[in-house]
Every structure is written in C-alpha cells, then in structure tokens.
Here is the input.
Amino acid sequence: MDKLRQAEQTARISNRYIALTTVLIGSLIAVCAAMADLQGNALARAMIEQTQAHSDYNGASAKFQIVTVGLEKLSGDPSVVSADAAQLVLLKRFLRLYLDYSKERDFAKTWVDSYQPVIDTHLNASAGHKNAQLVAQIAIAIALIAVLFSNRPAWLISIVLAVICIGMLTSTWLNTSAAVAHTLANIRKSESAYQRLRGAHLAANQDERAVEELVEKYRSPNGLRVPIIDDLSVKREVLGTHR
Here is the structure.
C-alpha cells in the first residue's frame, strides 16, 4: 500500500514538472515568433531605405547622362574647333561636371550596394528564428505527449529540443548583432560620403546652372535636340526630385 502511494506521488510530481516544462516551451515559442517579427520589421526598413538610396542613384545617373549628352554635342560641334573663350569655358565646365557627376553616381551606387549585406543578414536571421520556433513547436508537442502518458523519456526529449532551440536563438542573435553593427557602419559611411558630395554640388548650384546652359545652347525652333530631356519643365522636375 505504501509503495503504491509513493508511486502515485512520484507520478504526480513528474506530471507537475512536465506541465511546467510545457509552459516554458510555450513561452519559448512566443519569444521565437517575436524575434522573427523584429527581424522582419528590420528587413522591411532596410529595403525601404535602399529604395530611397536607389532613387538618389537614378537621379545621379540621369544628371550624368545629361552632361554626357552635352559633351557629345559640344565635341561634335564644328564651332568648337575655332571656339572662343566663352565656348572653351563652357567645355571645361562640362568636363568638370562630367567628372563630378561620375563620382556622384559611383558614390550613390556604393551607398545602394551597402544595404545588401544587412538585408541578407536580416533574411538569414528571420529564417534562423523561424527554424528555432519549429524546433520549439516539436518540443511542446512531445511534452504534451509526456503529460498525457506520464512518459519520462518523452519529457526528457522535449527538454533536449528546448535546449537546442535556445542554442539556435542565441547563436542567431550573436551572429546577427555583429553583422548588422558592421554593415550599418558601412551604410552610414557610404551615405555620409554621398551626402557630402551632393552638398558641395548644391552649394555651388551646379545642377541648375549646368542644365540651363545645356538647354539654352541646344534649343531649336522645333524644341530641344537633346534626347534625354523633352523640355525645360521635365529638366526642372528631374533636378527638383533628386536634390
């Protein structure tokens, strides 16, 4: 009789521990889901910022093409052979703008490309947290089986899986934190370099003056002979969008 009572008490204690393990694993599932959501939000934010940087890159490319067209027109203009001082100044100015906008486009491209590592990191981190959540879900299913049948081996298996899940979460978090800190530093460095160059160009008012001169030089009775812009209003819209 005493042995039977002792066995019942032991089973009751074991079930209590198994139930507690089940609750803890359930909390672990919630943590995995929350961390996966955080990575998803960070991924969306990085992609939005990359899109904004790509818009600046498109603007820089458009201005580079405008100046390239201007240089092609000047180089093909017979009057340049016997150019006066004003034409030579204009030619030199377009050559300088060509170099400036080429550099601006390269800086913008570097800024856009610097987002890709952080995007890949957030993608991998989100996948890692979801994998950890899957392991935790398997663990809680086994723990429920252990509760129903008072099965000690099943309970131990659920504990092992929960520990594996915690290890996956920890590893993913450590790797992600280090990688994101490094890539964010590169992004800010690239953005700062681009914005400094843009600030110098805007301070010199190079964009507006350069295209104004190009528009005035190649305006004809039928309109502009520059294929990249249709009219003066389009040119102003392009410049105003990417200031």
Summary: Confidence is low (pLDDT under 50) at residues 218-243.
